[in-house]
Write a structure and sequence with these properties.
By secondary structure, the chain is an alpha/beta fold. It has 9 helices and 18 strands. It has 2 domains: 249 residues, QueA-like (3-Layer(aba) Sandwich), CATH 3.40.1780.10; 91 residues, Thrombin, subunit H (Beta Barrel), CATH 2.40.10.
């Protein structure tokens, strides 16, 4: 399965930096189009970098696995951003259909008041229409909302102006759809409103257009078991956007540029990380977005400290992790920046061998699929 069929094969590029080195064949039936019956009912592949052994287990056993590996405890860092119903469908004045995927997190909108109680804000969105919209043209919706096209960018990204009356979050909750990944090949339904969301997602952090999927497996019971075994829990915020799911298009992965995503590492989290490091305890990132938050924070400041701002960090083989010691993650798309990132942590050959084992063992892949723990 090639994620980008147009990327050229160039034997002059070292294998570890060749995009085609990060591909694998995935049968369609192995894509998890629905979540497991229970959140913690997924499977878990443990990749032990020290012993070189891989272990097939159940996610519900994660507290026992961690306690066995780290008897002194450790610190889990999770991304508490919330997915918002960012996909909206409207119409042009001519009657043509318009589909927009809002990429700007709601907490980051710079809202301006307008006459008669209306409000406006500029945002970035992916815009899809049957016929090309004109600059300055507005799309209408079944709500007090209009979206005007201001500027076109690369790969469908556009600058738009939102105008509305009332509360924008309430409007989107009314007319919006959960932005499920296109490879699920189905429309969202009522169940996705709850299941394409972590149990610890913060309502004040609504702004992600994709779920931090490693966190989807956690339940309050699993979290309580982790705490009972001496594992602390802290959180960061990374609003998952275009940077996370934008495909790598260059044959040489070193040429790829990540789109910026907004990160918040509060002082309480920075302190917990510093304390864990001082005590020799592992910092375990729950998901690649949590790992990017921590590593982006460190890259921006050269130290573990509170941070708010954008990160464009792109972690490829040859780059070391300054903060993260272990990573819980799902199985990623071929030739994606996420597959490249986990290969930087565990080694490309180890990761590709683990993916082959997962395929042989019947694991389910992608957002609603099973998990991997790299330790």
């Amino acid at each position: 399965m090639r994620h980008n069929e147009n990327a050229p094969e160039n034997p002059a590029i070292p294998e570890v930096f060749r995009l085609t080195s990060y591909t694998y064949e995935l049968p369609e039936e192995r894509i998890a189009r629905r979540p497991a019956e229970r959140r913690d009912g997924s499977r878990l592949l443990v990749l032990d970098r020290g012993s070189g052994a891989d272990r097939v287990d159940a996610f519900v056993q994660l507290p026992e696995i961690l306690a066995e590996r780290f008897p002194q405890g450790g610190l889990l860092v999770a991304n508490n951003s919330r997915v918002f119903p960012a996909r909206i469908f409207g119409r042009r004045a001519t009657g043509g259909r318009v589909e927009l995927l809002l990429l700007t997190p709601l907490p980051l909108l710079h809202v301006k008041p307008l006459p008669e109680g209306r409000k406006s804000a500029e945002a970035v969105a992916l815009v899809r229409t049957a016929k090309r919209m004109k600059l300055g043209e507005a799309a209408l919706f079944d709500a007090p909302l209009t979206v005007t096209l201001l500027e076109r960018g690369e790969f469908g990204r556009c600058r738009v102006r939102l105008e509305w009356t009332g509360d924008i979050a309430s409007i989107l909750n009314e007319i919006g759809h959960m932005p499920l990944p296109p490879y699920l090949e189905r429309p969202d339904d009522a169940a996705d409103r709850e299941r394409y969301q972590t149990v610890y997602a913060d309502a004040a952090k609504a702004g992600s257009v994709a779920a931090p999927t490693a966190g989807l497996h956690f339940t309050p019971e699993v979290c309580a078991s982790l705490a009972a075994k001496g594992f602390r829990w802290t959180e960061v915020t990374l609003y998952v956007g275009y940077g996370t799911f934008s495909p790598v298009r260059e044959g040489d992965i070193r040429a790829h540029k990540m789109h910026a995503e907004y990160v918040e590492v509060p002082e309480t989290t920075a302190l917990a990380v510093r304390e864990a490091k001082s005590a020799g305890l592992p910092v375990i990132a729950v998901g690649t977005t949590s790992a990017r938050s921590l590593e982006g924070m460190f890259a921006a400041q050269g130290e573990v400290a509170a941070f708010q701002g954008e990160t464009e960090i792109y972690i490829i083989p040859g780059k070391s992790f300054a903060v993260v010691d272990a990573l819980l993650t799902n199985f990623h798309l071929p030739e994606s920046s996420l597959l490249i990132m986990v290969s930087a942590l565990a080694g490309r050959e180890r990761i590709m061998a683990a993916y082959a084992l997962a395929l042989a063992q019947g694991f389910r892949f992608f957002s609603y699929g099973d998990a991997m723990f790299i330790v």
